[in-house]
Structures are given as C-alpha cells and as structure tokens.
Design goal:
The protein is mostly helical. Helices cover 68% and strands 0% of the residues. It has six helices and no strands. Helix 1 crosses helix 3 and helix 1 packs antiparallel against helix 4. The longest helix is centred in the first third of the chain and has 21 residues.
Length: 94
Amino acid sequence: MDNLTCLADIEHMNFLYLLLVRSMATELAVIQCGLPKATVEHIKLLSIEEIKSLAHDMPTPCFRLPPASIEMIEKVSPLNRRGFFLNVAMGDAK
C-alpha cells in the first residue's frame, strides 16, 4: 500500500467516523465514542461538506486526536488545518 492510498483510506475512515458521531449525536454517542458532549454537539452542527473538509484535513485517524483539537478547528484557517493536525498528532505521539 502506498502513502497516497493510506492517506485516502484515513480520510475515508475519518469521514465515516465523523458521520457516525453526527448521526448518533445523543448521550449514547458521548458514551460510545468517548467524546465530550461539547464535541459531539459541535460535530452534530457540521454540514456534510464541512465534515468532508474536516476529514480531508486530518492526516491521522481523528478518533485518536484529543477532542479539544477537533473543537479548535474552527479557529484554524483552512489553509493551515493539515499542519495543525500534524502538529497535534506529533505532540500526541511523544
């Protein structure tokens, strides 16, 4: 598997995960997804296009990222999102 295929798979997995959280946006999602209620509420308000964009900008599986980083995405310019998530992932790996 080459890097482009791997990145495409991660993007698709992130998209499906965010859609799942959005569709389950209840107390059950908070328990099953392990995300804070505020994060679930935030994801619930995203459009499909916003979820696609967010999934594309996350170069690592989003269910491994700290929930605060998902919430902070609105404060990060779309041009800088991928770098932001890489920095979060690298900091999380240490």
